[in-house]
Amino acid sequence: MGPSILSARNLSKVVPSAEGDLTILHELSLELKQGDSLAIVGASGSGKSTLLGLLAGLDLPSAGSVTLSGHDLGQLDEDQRARIRAEHVGFVFQSFQLLDSLNALENVMLPLELDGRRDAREHARSLLERVGLGQRLSHSPRQLSGGEQQRVAIARAFAAEPAVLFADEPTGNLDSHTGERISDLLFDLNKERGTTLVLVTHDERLAQRCRRLIRLDAGHLVAPLEP
Amino acid sequence: MARLPFIRLLALALRQLLRDARAGELRVLFFALLVAVAASTAIGYFGARLNGAMLLRATEFLGADLVLQGSSPAQPEQIAKGTAAGLVHAQVVEFSSVIATDNGIQLSSIKAADSAYPLRGALRSAAEPYASETSGGGPAPGEAWVEPRLLAALDLKIGDSIDVGMKTVRLSRVLTYEPDRAGNFYSLTPRVLINLADLEATGVVQPGSRVTYRDLWRGEPDALASYRDSVSTHLAPNQRLQDSRDGNRQIGGALGKAERYLNMASLVAVLLAGVAVALSASRFATRRFDASALLRCLGLSRRQALGLFCLQLAILGSLAALGGALLGWLAQLGLFKLLQGLMPTQIPAGGLAPALAGIATGLVALAGFALPPLAALGRVPPLRVLRRDLLPVPPSSWLVYGAALLALGLIMWRLSLDLLLTFALLGGGLVAAVLLGGLLLLGLRSLRRLLAGSPLAWRLGLGQLLRHPLAAAGQSLAFGLILLAMALIALLRAELLDTWQNQLPKDAPNYFALNILPDDKNTFAERLNEFSAEAAPLYPVIPGRLTEINGQAVQQIVSKESTGDRAVQRDLSLTWAADLPQGNALTEGQWWLREPAADTHLPGVSVETELAQSLKLKLGDQLTFSIGGEQRKAVVSSLRTVNWDSFQPNFYMIFQPGTLQGLPTTYLTSFFLAPGHDQQVVALSRAFPAVTLLQVDALLAQLRSILAQVTLAVEYVLLFVLAAGLAVLFAGLQATLDERIRQGALLRALGAGRSLLIKARRIEFGLLGAASGLLAAIGCELITLLLYRYAFDLSWSPHPWLLLLPVIGALLIGGAGVFGTRRALNASPLKVLRES
């Protein structure tokens, strides 16, 4: 296992609500090394997605700090955090988040094009072939099944060769068989490319495949699993 | 990611746009812009070309595009410059001469013209008095064409010969129409038209004799303008330039109103464009919230994400604007083709300006209406990828409406160049929108309570409106704006046409009688009353020249070529009157109540406003006139506007009664004579040989034909606005289509029948249309109140028929709504649910 890539120190998130301030996360700390994999599990509303958002720099904590690839996210403004995301982070979402107007190939090309890579098309094509969609390049998301859409999303997430891949319920919208194949793909790629994987899931079998697991209950860390 | 250079962002935007276009998402926005630019370009072209055509018509009144007139022949270099500029030239020499025969003598107005004359319009003549006329040609050397009045006065017939000075010419035809005669009918005696080749032989034109030389020019506007510039600075004191604009006041008035009207129509088209763009741009933005969040996740900065979408819209807007301009150009070509028989044969092409203006209009509207909703895309939180319910902070409504209003105001101002009109429209629209939008919102909220127990179709239809009352109010306002625009155009069209027609009633005076001697005054009036009930009062006329203003010579005060300049170059017809003449209105000062007391200071004079402006006159200024060799002083006591379109005798200067006594006076009047009573005119002219009777039928006919064209133009422009409005309506419906398809599919999946859906939809759009119609009716009254009062100078009264607008709105929008959303009824529920 490599050096530390992602760490959280005393992370708290408080949001105002009608009944006063609501604490979604309570002073949570963790550290991940390069190539590690972490599952965040817990009931609905336990704060899993909030934690994921904070770790990925999509949101800022009320207290505590997150360090990603050596950068203290709390010290950066939104545009600087966007740059960190572009350089170090990939995402896979429960709802796939493919752009309807783009076909499969174009969706995967998007982050490469943003990066100005001339080989965007070839690289995207080889990634889609790697996830088994070499024959569906020109299909629009609407023409693809849920599992196929998630495979496109995974290809897109790996396209920019991120140091950390965040996945939010990657199998949540899929049947168990398809979900199984998607998680195989995720872990295969994780291994091939040495990516650090952070995933939020309800799926206990998926969670068990991660090297580390934390369980959240109402914003508290209840079952830290030490490496 | 390294910094994203602009060029890569542009390339990316272009690629995204192409992909989006293929997916069909941007079609609505493209279509809305296309229609808007096409409509405003077509109207722009139509207006510009029609204006050009009408101006061309107006040039007929000069017989040319540009006339160099002077009391001595033009200098050779002045002619050479015109020829060098590629202009066509014709020459006319006019003077007065007495025609004597055995039957009497008649002072006549001789015109010697070369064969190129006239350069605009054509002479019309007949073989015999009152025989059918033919167009074109002119007298050959040795011949003369004369007006019927001369034949009657001197008991001549065609084929006889007359002496013009020392030259004998044969009367070959009756002259019935001279294009350039009409503009200058006040001081006229019967016309004798001869060939310029005979001029020298007449021996009339000697050094010192009173002769007017007119050099007529025709050509392209640019060449004319450059000729005008090169000549105007070196004009001799006795020379001046005339073009169609100052050639004729009557045409000027009608043109001015037509221009305002056409500009109004353009404004309306722009307003519609704004609505369409705002609707589809906000849809564009809403549908890109997810994409924006995703791009931010992928590392784009806020500014880059926003820039990417802005660039997409800018590219799309440019394409739509170019296409729209082309389409608009084609549309007006088709329109003119359709109108071929009704239009003058020569219609100027219109140039590039209307197309460029259309494109600019489209882009400014896009910026003003699309940027505010687009700005929200820059504020989409990236966390939205995890939580779909996260929406961007809505932009300040000041920004949204401020930008839209600014864009609209800018376009309106450029189009109409009339701040008053712009403010009336913008202000009226804004007040109406705020007031009515608020009312509507309240109304919708109270409906909610009322409808709890109503049938399902009603609850479904209304539910759609009530679920987003703010959106419903906005939509209703938008549709209301369309109805309002159409109603406004229809209303103004009717109103303007009525006003024009009333100004020129069927029995508008068609004869002027000049030079009525004081001794003949009463008998003439009696004779006139026998056959014409429509006679104006007899006005005294005293020729006099304005020489000084406050003791300073007028020549030092007026600028060259101005109205004032022309007024002081010649004798003015002065008059006195106890009462303010019909068609005149005071703008400053007071009308006198009685004759001045004998011992008090100077008598008062009322001056026409435009002349007063040109002479820089104000109340209390002292004017000195030279009248019949005497100096008379008067004080400016009032300023007044004159309705020059009225064909009544009109005067620049009206004196207080009792102040011009003892000066040589003749009288002037105008009257209407029904066609076919020409013998009475002949009898009248025989009974009063000194009186000059002047027929202005030809001018009236010309004016009527121009009005007919304007009317037609107005009707076609209305059609265009209507088409644009409908297109925008459909664009608006399209914006809500996705949600409707989803909802319709869901309802059908739950077992709702097609008929229930149709009924619900009818109720929804019918109500929306009725509310829009109501808004339009109220807004229309508000705006017309302002417009009539301040822009068109018309009197305002309520328009009860506007109450039909809610019904029209319900039918139109109800029908269009059901039609425009039929896809939502026809899509398979299964497929739609799968896709969503």
TrEMBL record, chain A:
<dbReference type="InterPro" id="IPR017911">
    <property type="entry name" value="MacB-like_ATP-bd"/>
</dbReference>
<dbReference type="GO" id="GO:0005886">
    <property type="term" value="C:plasma membrane"/>
</dbReference>
<keyword id="KW-0472">Membrane</keyword>
<dbReference type="GO" id="GO:0016887">
    <property type="term" value="F:ATP hydrolysis activity"/>
</dbReference>
<dbReference type="InterPro" id="IPR003439">
    <property type="entry name" value="ABC_transporter-like_ATP-bd"/>
</dbReference>
<keyword id="KW-0812">Transmembrane</keyword>
<dbReference type="GO" id="GO:0022857">
    <property type="term" value="F:transmembrane transporter activity"/>
</dbReference>
<dbReference type="InterPro" id="IPR027417">
    <property type="entry name" value="P-loop_NTPase"/>
</dbReference>
<keyword id="KW-1003">Cell membrane</keyword>
<keyword id="KW-0067">ATP-binding</keyword>
<comment type="similarity">
    <text>Belongs to the ABC transporter superfamily. Macrolide exporter (TC 3.A.1.122) family.</text>
</comment>
<dbReference type="InterPro" id="IPR003593">
    <property type="entry name" value="AAA+_ATPase"/>
</dbReference>
<keyword id="KW-0813">Transport</keyword>
<dbReference type="GO" id="GO:1902495">
    <property type="term" value="C:transmembrane transporter complex"/>
</dbReference>
<feature type="domain" description="ABC transporter">
    <location>
        <begin position="6"/>
        <end position="225"/>
    </location>
</feature>
<dbReference type="Pfam" id="PF00005">
    <property type="entry name" value="ABC_tran"/>
</dbReference>
<dbReference type="GO" id="GO:0005524">
    <property type="term" value="F:ATP binding"/>
</dbReference>
<keyword id="KW-0547">Nucleotide-binding</keyword>
<protein>
    <submittedName>
        <fullName>ABC transporter</fullName>
    </submittedName>
</protein>
<dbReference type="InterPro" id="IPR017871">
    <property type="entry name" value="ABC_transporter-like_CS"/>
</dbReference>
Automatic annotation (TrEMBL), chain B:
<dbReference type="GO" id="GO:0005886">
    <property type="term" value="C:plasma membrane"/>
</dbReference>
<feature type="transmembrane region" description="Helical">
    <location>
        <begin position="470"/>
        <end position="492"/>
    </location>
</feature>
<keyword id="KW-1133">Transmembrane helix</keyword>
<feature type="transmembrane region" description="Helical">
    <location>
        <begin position="261"/>
        <end position="285"/>
    </location>
</feature>
<dbReference type="InterPro" id="IPR003838">
    <property type="entry name" value="ABC3_permease_C"/>
</dbReference>
<feature type="transmembrane region" description="Helical">
    <location>
        <begin position="800"/>
        <end position="821"/>
    </location>
</feature>
<protein>
    <submittedName>
        <fullName>ABC transporter permease</fullName>
    </submittedName>
</protein>
<feature type="transmembrane region" description="Helical">
    <location>
        <begin position="395"/>
        <end position="413"/>
    </location>
</feature>
<dbReference type="InterPro" id="IPR038766">
    <property type="entry name" value="Membrane_comp_ABC_pdt"/>
</dbReference>
<feature type="transmembrane region" description="Helical">
    <location>
        <begin position="352"/>
        <end position="375"/>
    </location>
</feature>
<keyword id="KW-1003">Cell membrane</keyword>
<dbReference type="Pfam" id="PF02687">
    <property type="entry name" value="FtsX"/>
</dbReference>
<keyword id="KW-0472">Membrane</keyword>
<feature type="transmembrane region" description="Helical">
    <location>
        <begin position="420"/>
        <end position="444"/>
    </location>
</feature>
<feature type="transmembrane region" description="Helical">
    <location>
        <begin position="713"/>
        <end position="733"/>
    </location>
</feature>
<feature type="domain" description="ABC3 transporter permease C-terminal">
    <location>
        <begin position="264"/>
        <end position="373"/>
    </location>
</feature>
<feature type="transmembrane region" description="Helical">
    <location>
        <begin position="29"/>
        <end position="48"/>
    </location>
</feature>
<feature type="transmembrane region" description="Helical">
    <location>
        <begin position="305"/>
        <end position="331"/>
    </location>
</feature>
<keyword id="KW-0812">Transmembrane</keyword>
<feature type="transmembrane region" description="Helical">
    <location>
        <begin position="765"/>
        <end position="788"/>
    </location>
</feature>
